[in-house]
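A protein record pairs a chain with a discrete description of its three-dimensional fold. The shape at a given residue is found from the number at the same position. Here is what such a record looks like in full:
>
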Amino acid sequence: MSEESADNSAAPAVCEAKILFRQLKPFPVIDENNNFKIETAHFLESSNQIIDAIACFGKLFSPIVKDMRQNVQKIADKYKQNESLFKYLEDLILKDKDGNDNPFDTVTDGLLWLKRAFEMMEQFFRNLLEDETRSEQVKPHLKKAYEECLLPYHGFLAQKAFQLLHSFLPSRSSLLGTSDSNMDNLKALEEFLALFRANLTHLNEFYTKHDLHRTYKA
């Protein structure tokens, strides 16, 4: 997501980054105001925005972006069937599970794979934030995140596909902006990741509580 200025000479320095985290809708707050559940519509909107941001990594990332979009769409399609009943993501999944002979249908499984992809991206961005060297080379950060979050569920072909994507990552300044102009973007990223991680942790606990995790390899 690029920010452009009509008159660069007259305007103050801007963060010329592919992703401007201040412009992304944060993931939902999970507290007593929403029964300690995730609001489905809010989750879907935030999911689509972060996927749009990841799409700026380049065309070679289109397969993983497409997969995430498809999993979001599965949830959205289910939500549209009864927006009142499925106001909260947890209720949507439990109703879906109870209404099928196979609890791991496209929606339950789709959210599981979406969560795993999001966990990888959250860890990747957190690795960037915690890198005190501010190295332009970000491939090690994505590799580490992949190994922790997705590798256990990927077979040989999926691993080879990731290795190809990993080779074409943009640089740190391309993603987040140059060091002189990106401090607000880094602060926005830190704030964004706090709720992002809270949602992922909540979903992990929910899937564990209801025995919804699966460990087959894609």
The chain has eight helices and no strands.
